[in-house]
Amino acid sequence: MGSLPLHEQHQKNHSLSSSSTTTTPIDQSKLLTLFKTQQKYLNHFFQNLDLQQTLSFTQTLLNCKGTIFFTGVGKSGFVAQKISQTLVSLGIKSGFLSPTDALHGDIGILGNQDLLVMFSKSGNSEELLRLVPCARAKGAFLISITSVENNGLMGLCDLNVHLPLERELCPFDLAPVTSTAIQMVFGDTVAIGLMSARNLSKHEYAANHPAGRIGKTLIFKVKDVMKKKEDLPVCKEGDLIMDQLVELTSKGCGCLLVIDDEHRLVGTFTDGDLRRTLKASGEGIFKLTVGEMSNKNPRTIGPDAMAVEAMQKMESPPSPVQFLPVIDYDGVLIGIVTLHVLVSVGL
């Protein structure tokens, strides 16, 4: 395919640019008005929501013996997917069922103990109306969540929830921006209601998010992240400082852990202590033992403490530290946890 001659290409580009929509700078007062108007529309939703319908809907989800499936078309479909994912994160069996794919085989996943929740602003989406008889034939319990009164889905479902919508924020009252906002608020609030009713603990929630920071905060213990055994930079009280320089620098902890013959922690000696001792003693450092210059009252932590607690302890007054020796109930040294390791695992 040949390219247009240069003068024709210029005329074409000029035509496209001249026909494109012109833009104007964002007006701060108009933007503020939009936010306040959206707030007004959301307040209309909160003030007019039928709480009895909402209670019946939430209780139905709580009593579900099977899987709670969500479906929707377009923007409502995205909301349905998000609400489903929220429930899954709470340990509730849920999934998203594409209305189009359902009619091409995916409806086989529905059973007679399942719920099918259909999000739709109008309640008249052709894809959902076609899905209803097929889902009912599978024995699923059908629920519609709509904003337009007297719509097609309402007469076909077992339970209906009306989400009051004053109008869309869009100046043409067309773009689904307010309707999807109230769908999201409604679905997520119901999800937290289910979370409360199921008495989900913080640790149970964290177990569903092992890779996220909240999961790591509530799951990882000190014993899961500490260095131990041959990785520990240990020495005895009587060891000369200069004889332990390799141990001090090679284990990547920035310190020496001073122990007695029973492997109990006596104190710590850091690379900072080395610099201060060298500055104060000069050549006298060759005759000093680690025990003489060590900190005899270091911060410590137990192996069963939460890793996040170790980080908090490191950062606590009077001054932050970079490591914590890990000792058992008898004061025996069993490990060391460093700030570097805590940060590297995502805490």
From TrEMBL:
The keyword Repeat appears for this protein: yes
Domain SIS: 57-200
Site (Catalytically relevant): 75, 127, 168, 209
PROSITE patterns named among the record's database cross-references: CBS (PS51371), SIS (PS51464)
Pfam family of the protein (one): CBS
UniProtKB keywords: CBS domain, Repeat
Location of the region described as Disordered in the Swiss-Prot/TrEMBL record: 1-24
Stored InterPro entries: CBS_dom, CBS_dom_sf, KdsD/KpsF-type, SIS_dom, SIS_dom_sf, SIS_Kpsf
GO terms (BP aspect): carbohydrate derivative metabolic process; carbohydrate metabolic process
Any one GO MF annotation of this record: isomerase activity
Span of domain CBS: 226-288, 293-347
NCBIfam families tied to this protein: kpsF (TIGR00393)
Family membership noted in the UniProt record: Belongs to the SIS family. GutQ/KpsF subfamily.
Protein name: Arabinose 5-phosphate isomerase
Species annotation: Lithospermum erythrorhizon (Purple gromwell)
